[in-house]
Amino acid sequence: MLKDPFQRLGLDREVLTVSQLNQRARHLLEDVFPQVWVEGEISNLARPASGHLYFTLKDSQAQVRCALFRQNALKVRQALRDGLAVRVRGKVSLFEGRGDYQLIADAVEPAGDGALRLAFEALKEKLAAEGLFAAERKRPLPAHPRHIGIVSSPTGAVIRDIISVFRRRAPQIRLTLIPTAVQGREATAQIVRALATADARGFDALILARGGGSLEDLWCFNEEAVARAVAACRTPIVSAVGHETDVSIADFVADVRAPTPSAAAELLAPDAGDLQRRLDSLQRRLVLRMREQLSRERLRLDGMARRLRHPGERLRQQAQRLDDLDMRLRRAFERQRQIRKERLARLDTRLAAQHPGRTLALLRQKLDSLADRLPRATREVLKDHRQRLETLVQTLNVVSPLATLGRGYSILLDERGNAIRSAEQTRTGQRLTARLAEGELEVRVEDNHLTPVNLSLLD
User: Fold this and answer.
1) What is the pLDDT of residue 309?
2) What is the pLDDT of residue 178?
3) pLDDT value at residue 12
4) Per-residue confidence (pLDDT) for residue 2, from 0 to 100
5) Can you tell me the distance from the alpha carbon of 351 to that of 328, in angstroms, rounded to the nearest whole number?
6) Which of 112, 228, 231, 449 is spaced 20 to 30 Å from 417 by Cα?
7) Other Cβ atoms within 10 Å of 317 Cβ, number
């Protein structure tokens, strides 16, 4: 820190503009107060879209504007709200644009009772999200407990009030105290051990009790370890911590919350007078029900007696029914026998018709008939084929070149064996072959007259 920070301004040498004044004032404040802790209550909390937080920190006599920028706001675990008492760490600065004096915060912590209340709400939300407060996990209290464990301080008015209630309402119930501290640093660990010990003893129910006090006095019942110890107990638990207006985390986790320790005792201590009156009522109802049941049974017995007949009459009816069944059985048997006899006759007829010997005889007759028909059919086929062949031969002879040769004609063939059909196909001096009906002649073309020659068919 500068010994004389005003020397830095140089006011004796120049006239400052407003911007210069605010700038130098900001430097001065930041040099003098580089980091401070300030405690107060939050008010006018603003959360713009930028993610920065702006609020006023005040006490009973003064207030100061505060700015918590986004990168530092993300580090704050607690949910800030108006009315919350906090401790703020930061540097004193000045917003040059408006000339506002402000505190640039880089850390925010809860202060005093506000810190405890904030921790209470945070743990409550955490355990509720895990389902430790869910109604479906709550166990019902026993209607007629015989042995109850009390987790509380062995001294003070709480244990005396609980014992007084049980002596007055249900003196037959056994009570066992599991002593533990209910305030101070060691209370949390002792309560956890006491609950584990009580749960292992096999009590019908447990009472977790403490008298009233401040939030700090009751804080051990708001510890997470105690809450989880209550949730882990298999024995039904009634939580009676503080007065009616006091609420602890243990109250939410327990199966039942009682407003006071005496009220917890009344929940588990059925009144002897009420039990006696209920017993008398149940006895009267039982006698009335027994009388009604006896009356109904008597009427039922009278009805059965009227319906009851002599055994001889029942025997005669059964004998008649037996004779009727015997005749019906005989008729049914005879009818079935006749049906089966007719069916057997039909099957015998079908079997005779399909006997292998009969089938073989029919096949043999058919074979003999086919054997007789085969030679005749063969001769007819051969005769038909012979006639067709002779017809074809005659037709072939009519159109055959050999027949033409037989009538005195010949066929001229050139050197390659091709038939000569026109004189134009020959040349003078060419040698040809003349095929006759019998034999061949070698001839030579002397002259190939191209002029047609008339031949007489009469020569």
Assistant:
1) 66
2) 93
3) 55
4) 46
5) 34
6) 449
7) 11
What does the CA dihedral 64, 68, 73, 77 come to, rounded to 10 degrees? -20
| Strand partners of residue 175 | 148
pLDDT digits (tens, 9 = 90+) for 196-252: 999 999 999 999 999 877 677 788 898 899 999 999 999 999 998 887 777 889 999
Q: What is the torsion angle, in degrees rounded to the nearest 10, for the CA atoms of residue 175, residue 181, residue 182 and residue 186?
A: -150
Q: From the first residue on, what is the mean pLDDT of each consecutive set of 10 residues in the chain (459 residues)?
A: 51 73 81 85 90 89 90 80 86 83 86 69 88 90 91 89 90 91 88 93 92 78 91 92 82 91 88 73 88 88 75 76 87 91 88 77 85 86 90 79 73 85 82 84 81 54
Give Cα separations from 279 to 113, 271, 272, 274, 276 (angstroms).
Answer: 52, 12, 10, 8, 5
Q: Which residues 6+ apart lie within 8 Å of 235 measured at CB?
A: 149, 198, 199, 202, 203, 204, 205, 206
Rounded to the nearest 5 degrees, what angle is found at the Cα of 186, between the Cα atoms of 183 and 187?
40
